[in-house]
Amino acid sequence: MKSLWRILAPLYRQRLGGLALALLFTAITLAAGVGLLGVAGWFLTGAAIVASWQIFNLFAPSALVRGLSFIRIVSRYTERVVGHDTTLRLLADLRGTVFKRLLPLDAGQLAKYRDGDLIARLTGDVDALDTVYLFAIAPVITALVIGVILSLVVGAWLPAAGLLLLLCLFLGSLIVPLYLAKKAHQPGLVAQENIAIMRDTAVQAVTAHADLISLGAESKARREFAAQCLEVATAHKRQAILAANGKAVVQILSGLSLVGVLYWGSEGFTEGLINGPVWAGLVLATLGFFEIFAPIMRGASRLGSAAAAAKRIETLMQAKPNIEDAAEVIDLPVQGDIVFDNVRYTYPGDERQQKGPEVLRGIS
Fold first, then answer.
1. In the chain, where the domains are located
2. What is the CATH number of domain 2-321?
3. Which residues, other chains included, contact 146 with Cβ-Cβ below 8 Å and sequence gap of 6+?
4. Taking a C-beta distance cutoff of 8 angstroms, is the pair 172, 187 a contact?
5. 363 φ, ψ (degrees, to nearest 5)
């Protein structure tokens, strides 16, 4: 993971404005979605239980529902545009930086990397880093901020349920993703290495296709490529299983939080501490909040591939050129005259004579 942050931290600092803006709209989207469900639960429950002779204000909650729906749509669209634009610019910056480091390297240094391996590092490995912000950093920060606010809101009516929601929040946004990222490191490393080998195998097969046909080695090349595909598929399957397990844990945490709000809400309703519409709104808001954890688990299962890709990219970026440019630029003379001053030249001798014939003498 250290290689990952060493590469991404300078790039994130360069694009801090765009990342912060994308993070802001991500938080607004989640807050609007949670608020929409909460207001809808309060509105529908209040409208259902009100008697025909009672007065119920339909305009305020209906206006909130429409407003939050519009805010959620706009913020979701803006977050996607800004977030993906910033991420693509980050990847372009990274590709430019890596290519800039490759330019001073001589042919001997580049020869130790296969053609397909270099292509994989400049394309596949760089692309693997786009999941870090979109599926890991942004969702985790958003979940923590909005989750703490929701826990305080729930805790204002149901203190025990608020504490339970806060506990589930930290488990789902920190503990479980860190565990998944640790477990996903090895399959991610295997996947990235074998993808690079597959690219190189494909390049070599195209280049040496005539030789493979003439030597009858086509079936062997196919078997080797199939074995590499199987390794990648197995690694991706392990990552998918980890992501599925993470989502299962999130469902358990969501269920615990929901049961907690229902249980302590029933006690509060019996004691007159909370009314029915507010209780229903808190239940639906809690249920809607846990949708943010799906991308977190998906991103955590891919962090292994991102870390392996970052390590492979860092190896390229740390390569030192054998021929380095001079630290100080030396100004060349304006005129390039060639001057001969008493030039003499004699051919070298051989075994019979130590000195050959002199052909030039006193040339000026």
1. 2-321
2. 1.20.1560.10
3. 27, 30, 31, 34, 289, 292
4. no
5. -80, 125
